[in-house]
What does this fold into?
Amino acid sequence: MSNGWVDGGGAVLVIAETRRGELRDVSLELVSAAREVAQAAGATVAVAVIGADSAKFAQALGAEGVDQVLTVSAPSDNFEAHVWQRAVTALIESEQPRLVLVGHTIDSLGFAPAVAARQGLGFATDVVKVSFDGGLRARRGAYGDKLQAEVEFPDHDCTLLTVRAGMYPVAAAGSGSPAVRAVELDLAGAARTEHVEFRDVAGGDVDITKAEFLLSIGRGVEDKDEVPRFQELADQFGATLSSSRPLVDAGWMPSSRQVGQSGKTVKPRVYLALGISGAVQHLAGMRTADTIIAVNTDPEAPIFGVAHFGAVADLFEVVDGIEKALEQAS
Ligand SMILES: Cc1cc2nc3c(=O)[nH]c(=O)nc-3n(C[C@H](O)[C@H](O)[C@H](O)COP(=O)(O)OP(=O)(O)OC[C@H]3O[C@@H](n4cnc5c(N)ncnc54)[C@H](O)[C@@H]3O)c2cc1C
It folds into this structure.
């Protein structure tokens, strides 16, 4: 069976994400993805937001290209997987979308697979690109991100995708003027867990996904005692320090600073990689940075395959040079 959107119309439904009273960037990234697919498929875009105070996000979610914002009133603003599962299921039944986009986030992973399985939807996770060319296609990593696979959903009228954060630009909040509709759903009693409190983890002070300039260090720094030197350099530059996974595994850096497949996906204006080889799992988290600069002694290091500027050099010599230049400038 063909998806046939061009003839059949249909909507792309985005499920927005909020946390602690704030709209998360991934919501407006999903809007960008939805717009792209909707344009190619001749479909409309609806964005649903769920929460006790959902209406307050309607204006921001009304980005250009959004046709409708659906506000769903829930018993609490705090995410609860069973409430969201019931709400999203009901929205799919009432709105009959062809495609549902949610973030590939901790929250969504709590309900999206259950919704897809119970409703018999097409489903793919950790999607990095969604497209429509006569039929829906989702691009995602396979074999630990060593391959990129294109997944099709020919036998499904509706498909649910979890889309990786940082893969699409954040659509300009409030740049459109969509219709806003309150959707009444019976969500009372759906919750099976109770939100108690938010706790900030140590080292969670900095959100590397929001940094404009990341100075990222890898195993090439060789010694834990060297880490403060790079923190100091980052501070002087106005950069945020991040790292590859081995430094986190070794306890040299907090997990909140890890870039990559099992860490954070970042999209800074500048990503300066010092002593990072560029393993696929690392590239998965930073390859869409605007400008990537790599310093590595190994000219064959894969990081040079994605870098816009590179130096085959000893990172300590480069850092010595930068420190000297900063000293002279001050
Ligand atoms: C399921 C799974 C998930 C993973 N998730 C992640 C993830 O989220 N993030 C992540 O980063 N990794 C992740 N990994 C690990 C990943 O495969 C790599 O092992 C890791 O990224 C390597 O880190 P690195 O580049 O710092 O170290 P290495 O690969 O050891 O590279 C160190 C580099 O430093 C260079 N170097 C050494 N000395 C110097 C010097 N003096 N000057 C300049 N260059 C120097 C070397 O040439 C080398 O290229 C994951 C792996 C798996 C299996």
